[in-house]
Design brief:
- The protein is 56% helix and 0% strand.
- By secondary structure, it is mostly helical.
- The chain starts with a helix and ends in a 5-residue tail after the last helix.
- It is extended, with a radius of gyration of 21 Å.
Length: 143
């Protein structure tokens, strides 16, 4: 379980499990647990950062593979009728989830392209309407 991977138990009163209370934890301090030392807090933060970086890398790999699989029609030689039925059987995900994966893969590709385009490209002066639309879709709150 992820919380145990992030926080190791340090005693009987600290089981290392995060997020099992039903109340809004954002504004509630846990009076039972003492504050961590600065060194321990840095260690937990570093492990959390490492886990987040692992997730980012995994999502990037998944997105690239998801983007490539439908283009190669991987389901056809395996006897599936379409992408959705392939995903339902091979991965146990619904049709909606299969198509959301494709949307995520496309959005991540658009973000990657926008980030790697360099500083010479301005969102307000971009001549590629598809790139502007992809960026606006990926970041709807951006000005």
């Amino acid at each position: 379980m992820l919380p145990h991977a992030l926080v190791q138990p340090s005693g009987a009163q600290d089981d290392g499990v995060v997020g099992e209370q039903n109340e809004d934890q954002e504004h509630v301090a846990d009076p039972v647990r003492p504050l961590l030392s600065a060194a321990r807090a840095r260690e937990v933060t570093a492990r959390l950062r490492e886990a987040m970086d692992d997730v980012r890398r995994s999502v990037a790999v998944l997105a690239a593979r998801v983007r490539d699989a439908p283009a190669a029609r991987v389901w056809a030689p395996l006897g599936y009728n379409d992408w959705a039925s392939f995903c339902e059987t091979a991965f146990g995900i619904s049709r909606a989830q299969a198509y959301r994966l494709l949307d995520v893969a496309r959005s991540l590709a658009a973000i990657h392209d926008a980030v790697t385009a360099g500083t010479e490209t301005s969102r307000t002066r971009d001549s590629d309407p598809a790139a502007v639309a992809a960026l606006a879709t990926a970041c709807p709150s951006a000005p």
